[in-house]
Write a structure and sequence with these properties.
two-stranded antiparallel ribbon; 7 helices; 5-stranded parallel sheet; Rossmann fold; alpha/beta
Length: 211
């Protein structure tokens, strides 16, 4: 492959639900307008559940590592790193399983991999050049989650709080928070921390210039 000498930079951005991962990822994107950048979400790789009846799919714990098809994620990320195109899966949240549709994705020189559990899998960590953990207080994260789920997903306040207390919070404490130790950079306050964003993008520019 013609671009094999310039391996894409892979930046992993993680943190709890509502921490500001997407804001940080978009800030990196805006700060590097002259480079080709791909935002690559772990959420696209929830496991296919078409073999289960719908009632069983409703029991899915989307905050558990086993909810993700990391084998496929790693396979397709490795292809992008080799500058090969992929057909990325699409997850249907209404049917609680993988859609029949796919999204064709061409490789880019910077790949931002975003997701709550991307640092939990050692195989994924080894593919990252920079690992970022967005660290935001629990009360801010739950407020953001309530606002998002009520406005965008039409959920009730009671159902959001019940899910947070029964699933989201314990899964965060058990699986997400411990991955902070693997991060190269910890960003408090998410996308509002402009100093951290500036330092991060300066490092990315340095790597790109020296490739």
């Amino acid at each position: 492959m013609s671009q094999s000498e310039k391996r894409p930079i892979v930046i992993g951005v993680t943190g709890g639900s509502g921490s500001g991962k997407t804001s940080v990822s978009r800030s990196i994107l805006k700060a590097l307008p002259s480079h080709s950048i791909l935002l690559f979400e772990q959420d696209s790789y929830y496991r296919d559940q078409s073999h289960l009846v719908f009632e069983k799919r409703l029991d899915t714990n989307y905050d558990h590592p086993l909810a993700f098809d990391n084998d496929l994620l790693i396979e397709q990320l490795q292809k992008l790193i080799r500058y090969e195109s992929i057909d990325k899966p699409v997850y249907d949240y209404e049917e609680h399983t993988r859609s029949q549709e796919v999204i064709h994705q061409e490789p880019k020189e910077v790949i931002i991999l975003e997701g709550i559990l991307i640092l939990e899998d050692e195989r994924l960590r080894e593919l990252m050049d920079i690992k970022v953990y967005v660290d935001t207080e629990d009360d801010i994260r739950i407020i953001r989650r309530i606002k998002r789920d009520m406005e965008e997903r039409g959920r009730t306040l009671t159902s959001i709080i019940d899910q947070y207390l029964s699933v989201v919070k314990p899964m965060h404490q058990q699986f997400i928070e411990p991955t902070k130790k693997y991060a190269d950079i910890i960003v408090p306050e998410g996308g509002k921390n402009q100093v951290a964003i500036d330092l991060l993008t300066t490092k990315v520019r340095s790597i790109l210039e020296n490739k």
